[in-house]
Design goal:
The structure is a single chain. The termini are far apart. By secondary structure, the chain is of the alpha+beta class. The strands form two sheets. It has an eight-stranded mixed sheet. It has one domain: 2,3-Dihydroxybiphenyl 1,2-Dioxygenase, domain 1, CATH 3.10.180.10. The structure holds zinc ion. The site of zinc ion (ZN) has 6 residues, from strand 1 and strand 13.
């Protein structure tokens, strides 16, 4: 498989208003796409990312108001990590403190990691990394570009028993083990040439409780391929490995296939093309509600049912 790294992460949240305020105002991401859940157009599907929603920077949410919170644990993506330069550690420590966001600090494979959660309890991290990361963050009035979130650094999957997931990553998905930390039961895998945005960590603590889906948990993680050809090749590799793979689906901004890995996490492979500017100009990404063709006729009713979002 020719996987280039992480593409997006999709999680479940409760209140879209609080969610937008947190990701745009506190973390300084851009709301890059405002659309609806194609299976339930009475709820939003919102995408956050860098200036253009570069693959590897997109965090997306479905909203299930009133549903119970999940529990982060084994069988899940337990953390989604953002990359910032090592020199930005003090800035983010101060910013999380100013916003009264509880966090912990940990040393991991040579970098310092700030760990915290979003308003729904989703596990987030900022990795202040010594590795070069040339990706350009979205400009935010309170966050100098030098300190902005570059995009994903990595995702962490927690599995009390990770051998079959590790085998799939290495034997079928083209990942390679690049480092491990035995004391914390963490193994890091890299896709393609590696670097921030192309890492997946497997955490295998023997005693992790089983995770429960719900608000504040990840629904799926998507990996990047360049185009349809690479995606269809990946599809046949997943099938050869015995996975139950979906047909290719058109998600408007990318094309996708899905399969559940042996540890229970839903994996997606998504194309870099066509991207988020396919239905609105880059300058105004995320400012207007975009609907798929089947819902255009119902636009006024759909818009009336959705809460206004903070700007
Ligand atoms: Zn997805």
């Amino acid at each position: 498989m020719n996987l280039l790294g992480l593409h997006h992460v999709t999680a479940m949240a409760g209140d879209p208003v609080a969610n937008v305020a947190f990701y745009t105002r506190v973390l300084g991401l851009r709301l890059i796409k405002r659309t609806v859940n194609f299976d339930d157009p009475s709820t939003y599907h919102l995408y956050f990312g860098d200036t253009v929603g570069t693959p590897g920077s997109a965090l997306t949410f479905f909203y299930w108001a009133g549903q119970p919170r999940g529990r982060i644990g084994s069988g899940q993506v337990s953390a989604t990590a953002w990359s910032v330069p090592a020199a930005s550690l003090a800035f983010w420590t101060a910013r999380l403190t100013t916003h009264l966001l509880p966090f912990s600090t940990e040393s991991r494979l040579g970098d310092t990691v700030l760990r915290f959660t979003d308003p729904d309890g989703l596990g987030l991290e900022i990795v202040a990394t010594h590795e070069p990361d040339a990706r350009q963050p979205w400009a935010h009035p309170e966050i100098p570009v030098a300190h902005g979130l570059r995009g994903f650094h990595s995702v962490t999957l927690t599995h009390t028993s990770s051998a079959r997931t590790a085998a799939l990553l290495v034997s079928t998905m083209g990942a390679r083990e690049i480092s491990r930390e035995d004391a914390t039961h963490r193994v890091r895998y890299a896709f393609a040439t590696g670097g921030p945005g192309a890492y997946l960590d497997l955490l295998a603590p023997p005693d992790a409780p089983r995770g429960q889906p719900g608000l504040g948990t990840v629904h799926h993680v998507a990996f990047r391929v360049a185009d349809d050809e690479a995606e269809l090749a990946a599809r046949s590799e997943w099938q050869k490995a015995g996975l139950n793979v979906s047909p290719q689906m058109d998600r408007n901004y990318f094309h996708s296939i899905y399969a559940r890995e042996p540890g229970g996490v839903l994996f997606e492979i998504a194309t870099d093309t066509p991207g988020f500017a396919i239905d609105e100009p880059l300058e105004t990404l995320g400012t207007n509600l975009k609907l798929p063709a089947q819902y255009e006729a119902h636009r006024s009713a759909i818009e009336a049912a959705l809460p206004p979002l903070p700007t």
